[in-house]
Design goal:
heterodimer, A: alpha/beta, two-stranded antiparallel sheet, 7 strands, 23% helix, B: mainly alpha, 2 domains, three-stranded parallel β-sheet, 10 helices, globular
């Protein structure tokens, strides 16, 4: 578990160094749509991509699209950090990228639909502001895909 | 993750998601965030536990109904875990004659050959799924490369990214082989075996030490292993004979 009190001091200091102030005034978007009508996309900062696609650099604000019609079980990881467990992701892609769980939510009408494309970033080694440009690109792509909301997962 | 939440919400897209380090979310204040008390690398808690994963997702989706933010809620459940003593035993014994081979290249190749059938079994259990393949090299090529660097006591300063991808492929190959049998594994225990009982762990620790000693490359050491992993591996667990090095 990640309770800082349970970690060695050097790991605690490493994680606390990421305590940065908000990027600006709180953005707060609302919608009148019910959850069951919303279209979702998944976004992860786990550094995922398909085998053969460009790997992530050590510090890299770019992103990789993940098409809904690809087999997510074929996703691999090129995250630069050595400070998190990868064995769980080896067992189950949904542990990090819960695409099957969201397909199930569509099937039982909990949510409306899933985007045609989902996105993977690599969260490591950069200040938050560096992601502004690529986040804006993804926002544009999500709007083209009529996405209402995103579900974000870190590692 | 906090930065992406900020920029996407500012662009008019609702965001919700998982936070693994509560203090970071408290500080950066993404619009909606569910803190979960799970290990880093496991945002949905437990692999192959559909019901548990759905409870995590449901909790995060419920934050979309909040009238105002920032919203930071705590997930109430711990990830289901299996007692370490009930986890499957490591199927591989690393106490074999090849561990006394003269060179790193020979020892790593012997270990690779020993693990290959276990890797194949693990891959079959996972229905063909494997994370090996981030680098463009085969495991044989990777082991020869790592062994060659160790035997020459040199660092791959001209190709750090390729080196990083290669060692991640090697570590992944080992972890997937060590978890070949069905069952709930302790990630920590499997990591301990990798770092404390294998020639690869000993070799990576040597790379870690060498990079750590060079100020402008010390960051590379942190990309090889967490200090927690290295801290548990003293290097004494494996007798390293006939290691050619500048220090010898």
């Amino acid at each position: 578990m990640v309770r800082l009190a349970d970690l060695p001091e050097y790991e605690r200091e490493h994680l606390l160094a990421k305590n940065l102030p908000p990027l600006g005034p709180l953005p707060w978007h609302t919608t009148t749509k019910a959850l069951s009508a919303m279209r979702f996309a998944l976004i992860t900062t786990a550094g995922l991509h398909f085998r053969g696609e460009p790997t992530f650099d050590f510090a890299d604000p770019t992103f990789r699209p993940i098409a809904i019609d690809r087999n997510a079980d074929e996703l691999i990881m090129s995250h630069s950090s050595a400070n998190f467990d990868r064995s769980g992701f080896s067992e189950d892609v949904n542990l990090v990228f819960p695409i099957d769980r969201f397909q199930e939510l569509v099937a039982d009408n909990t949510i409306g639909s899933l985007a045609e494309f989902h996105y993977s970033f690599m969260g490591a080694g950069l200040m938050p502001e560096v992601y502004a440009r690529s986040a804006a690109q993804v926002a544009g792509l999500l709007k083209q895909d009529l996405v209402d909301a995103v579900f974000l997962t870190p590692v | 993750m906090c930065a992406l939440s900020y920029y996407l919400e500012a662009a008019g897209i609702l965001t919700t998601g998982i936070s693994l380090v509560r203090e970071n979310a408290e500080s950066m204040q993404p619009p909606r965030s569910l803190w979960v008390p799970f290990a880093l690398g496991r945002p949905l808690g437990k692999p192959n536990d559909t019901a548990f994963q759905h409870r995590v997702i449901d909790a995060a989706l419920s934050l979309l109904a909040a009238p105002a933010g920032p919203v930071l809620e705590d997930f109430a459940e711990e990830a289901p875990s299996t007692p370490v003593e009930d986890a499957p035993a490591c199927p591989v014994s690393f106490a074999n004659p090849n561990s006394n081979a003269e060179t790193w290249t020979a020892r790593l190749n012997a270990e690779h050959i020993q693990l290959q059938p276990w890797y194949e079994l693990g891959k079959r259990r996972r229905k063909g799924r494997s994370l090996v393949g981030a680098s463009s090299s085969t495991l044989t090529e990777i082991m020869n490369r790592l062994g060659g660097l160790l035997d020459r006591d040199t660092l791959p300063t001209d190709d750090l990214k390729g080196f990083k991808l290669a060692i991640e492929d090697a570590k992944t190959f080992y972890l997937e082989a060590l978890t070949a049998q069905p069952g709930d594994y302790s990630a920590q225990k499997v990591e301990q075996i990798l770092w404390q009982q294998t020639q690869l762990g000993a070799g990576l620790k040597r790379f870690y030490d060498r990079f750590s000693a060079i100020p402008n490359l010390a960051i590379m050491a942190r990309l090889i292993a967490s200090r927690q992993a290295i801290g548990g591996a003293t290097g004494d667990e494996i007798e390293i004979k006939s290691l050619p090095s500048k220090e010898d």
